[in-house]
Amino acid sequence: xxxxxxxxxxxxxxxxxxxxxxxxxxxxxxxxxxxxxxxxxxxxxxxxxxxxxxxxxxxxxxxxxxxxxxxxxxxxxxxxxxxxxxxxxxxxxxxxxxxxxxxxxxxxxxxxxxxxxxxxxxxxxxxxxxxxxxxxxxxxxxxxxxxxxxxxxxxxxxxxxxxxxxxxxxxxxxxxxxxxxxxxxxxxxxxxxxxxxxxxxxxxxxxxxxxxxxxxxxxxxxxxxxxxxxxxxxxxxxxxxxxxxxxxxxxxxxxxxxxxxxxxxxxxxxxxxxxxxxxxxxxxxxxxxxxxxxxxxxxxxxxxxxxxxxxxxxxxxxxxxxxxxxxxxxxxxxxxxxxxxxxxxxxxxxxxxxxxxxxxxxxxxxxxxxxxxxxxxxxxxxxxxxxx
Amino acid sequence: xxxxxxxxxxxxxxxxxxxxxxxxxxxxxxxxxxxxxxxxxxxxxxxxxxxxxxxxxxxxxxxxxxxxxxxxxxxxxxxxxxxxxxxxxxxxxxxxxxxxxxxxxxxxxxxxxxxxxxxxxxxxxxxxxxxxxxxxxxxxxxxxxxxxxxxxxxxxxxxxxxxxxxxxxxxxxxxxxxxxxxxxxxxxxxxxxxxxxxxxxxxxxxxxxxxxxxxxxxxxxxxxxxxxxxxxxxxxxxxxxxxxxxxxxxxxxxxxxxxxxxxxxxxxxxxxxxxxxxxxxxxxxxxxxxxxxxxxxxxxxxxxxxxxxxxxxxxxxxxxxxxxxxxxxxxxxxxxxxxxxxxxxxxxxxxxxxxxxxxxxxxxxxxxxxxxxxxxxxxxxxx
Lengths: 388, 383
Prior knowledge:
The complex is a heterodimer. By secondary structure, chain A is an all-alpha fold. Chain A contains 20 helices and no strands.
């Protein structure tokens, strides 16, 4: 039966195959033509036509990465962020190693208020080495900093913004962003109260000129800020950090104390004041302050680190190790924690662990040479580079 | 939430623009099309008519729902995008209006009113940078003779320029609005903010600053109307009431320089005591010293101004003028050329260069500057 059917089935099969091949060939030709026309439309600035053609192209061939990339880019140019975001999502699925796409995706997600996703994609972009044009670096770095501010990661935000300020100068957008981060306001420029605008502007100007190594101009704005808004939360804390940049530790300590009078639960002011006391060989005074900061903010690695340092300096090595181990668990990539922990282990005679932490510190130091935050750099400056 | 005082500027946007739009398209399906397409077209036709009818009858919520349905069938339906965005804007649903307007201007990038409404929506969603870009684009494209719309756009551009620290540009625009007869009450605070160089929107003025800012704005208006006595009273009053505030001595000094130059110079110096980095005060002082043939006094002021604001064209211009006054023609030309790159629309820089090139015997360059001046002075040269 099977054999007898063969002469009939075979020609049909051949015809079917041929038709399929023809159809596939035709589809290829159509696709190639659409892709060509889409690129031409884009290069001649016929963006709507380009969008229609790229959309058709990716419908015919959903695995066409260039199509998704171009579609996303053109939609992004038109500020059509929801649609652009969808295209970039498809693109990064097809080309997970294409670094710049993560920045565009994150920017779209910023605009569509998917903040968590946006932050994840900015981080993915950074993991790929933050590739892209100068313009992309500026826009992405700025928006990433805004989101970090909103998340309460003020130091990281200021680190990014300082780099931008050094490159771009005192722009109004950077001023506002730096003002929000400096005052520890977890807001975006679009969503803080209107009556805070002057406060944010004055703080932003002071922070910006401080970051541009222009302390006199920073001082002028800081003075006006104090005069106008000296009773607002975080203003004295910020003033303290400015004094800190200028190595005026006594003045900085005074500002932190005033902040604590206004905001008795201000853990960052406690920590900065404790650090000044540690540097001033008054670690005994620093211990209760750092303990209060830890109680207020138990998940803050810096709080445990400062307490660990204060305990170390008062010779309480066992307790110091305890705090520093918590700090290490919370922020394993933070070099100064590993450095102090190595020293604490050494004092307890735990040599192998000390050597492990020293190696970790040196490795982090090498890795982070060009990417540490100002806070870390400041801490590193206070250290000699090698554990004692 | 719309800014107080400007609500009238944005009312009835749909009515303002409707005259410019083509009539809704008839969508007769070709006989060769599939039946479903015919049904879809008919359904779309019915929807668009119903939506228009609802809008005409002020049944806004119905109209919004119908336009949304129509756009679901035909996403590129220009009239639908337009009318739906205007309805949403009037309902203060700004993010939705903004997203639709972005699609609208993508389809019609030459529609000035489209960019205008987009910029105004972005103003309301506090995307100020984009808002300014789009409103300026609207200004460049024009708004087809719609006076109220143009007034709104000018107002928003002026206040945004102040917020972006473009105080001179903002002042110029606001004065042009005063001259064109716009309601002055609305312009007092924007003028005061620009004059005092405070980068705030009127809605962002702290309560305890409002009086000072209003006095500055009223003084600027009095000056513009050449009501000298009133201006004198307001400016001296503001200096007396707020002697330690940045910008008030500068404002009074600028007023006095034209009347009693020595008093003006004294006020400018007081401004520099209050705000040691005040660039415009330095520039006005330098200008006065050049006028009084004291270029040695002017030089350090102009040099400091350039050091404080290296990208600020007026500072470069002044340094160029001072250097030329001191006899350093080559140095002056160099700075003027830098200033020209930063502010190619500033006629004064071209005049300076014309004179400097002529003095240097560079007749070809001088001729080029002359042509540039003629071009800039043509009535159609600027918005």
